[in-house]
Amino acid sequence: MKDWNTWRTTIRGAISQARNLGIPDEQIRKMYEAFADFLAQKICPATPEEALLKEMWNKANPEERKALTGILFKMMEK
Fold first, then answer.
1. What is the reported pTM?
2. Which residue of 36, 37, 39, 77 is 20 to 30 Å from 61, comparing CA positions?
């Protein structure tokens, strides 16, 4: 993504589409966590925000990653 606002808009859209398909929020969070893990492993960050998220993700243990996913999920809803 070119900037943080584009990233948030894209994620918000994906969350909305998943909800429209009847996918429960807990399942959406699990998918978001798997997606974040994929990005952290395979994608070079394009913005400072993405670099920070990647560094945080790579330093976090599984429980911290779950918490980070929950926080990011809430951020994307607003």
1. 0.75
2. 77
